[in-house]
Write a structure and sequence with these properties.
This protein is mainly β. It contains 1 helix and 6 strands; from the N terminus they run E-E-E-E-H-E-E. The protein is extended, with a radius of gyration of 21 Å.
Length: 147
């Protein structure tokens, strides 16, 4: 069995470009930047950024184009695909891209690494006053738990 699976969580490098295919379905293209932090052989902290070409189709394309902008975080799950075509100068061109199967909108604020990807449909809960979680004063009896 073979496997072609890609999981990425990064920030959009440009606004999504929505286009219609001849058959009427939608396609969107955008860039996604991911980074990693590592220590080099001298023990110095280094950061490397990778840029990915991403394409989504149908309803996914419409939603990404409608709600996403440059700099916002996005989690995508998909597969690698390389396309080839002959250029105007007769030279063969290649483009490797991630074809989206599923996605989730990232944390609000556009900061990569601000937390795990979340579902965009989830409602925000108001923070308790004082900015910290308020726990009940009384002890919880395990026998009171209904399951």
């Amino acid at each position: 069995m073979y496997l072609n699976k890609v999981l990425l969580y990064g920030n959009l490098t440009r606004d999504p470009e929505l286009k219609a295919l001849p058959g009427g379905s939608q396609v969107v293209n955008f860039g996604l930047a991911t980074n990693r932090v590592y220590k080099d052989k001298n023990g110095q902290k280094q950061e490397a950024t990778e840029f990915h070409n991403v394409v989504a189709f149908a309803r996914s394309a419409e939603l990404i184009a409608q709600y996403m902008k440059k700099g916002q975080p996005l989690f995508v799950e998909g597969r690698l695909q390389t396309r080839t075509w002959d250029g105007a100068d007769g030279k063969k061109n290649y483009r490797t891209e991630i074809v989206v199967d599923t996605f989730q909108f990232g944390a609000k604020g556009g900061v990569a690494g601000a937390g795990a990807p979340n579902n965009s449909q989830r409602e925000e809960q108001p923070a308790p006053s004082g900015g910290e979680i308020q726990y009940p004063d009384e002890e919880i009896n395990p026998e009171d738990i209904p399951f």
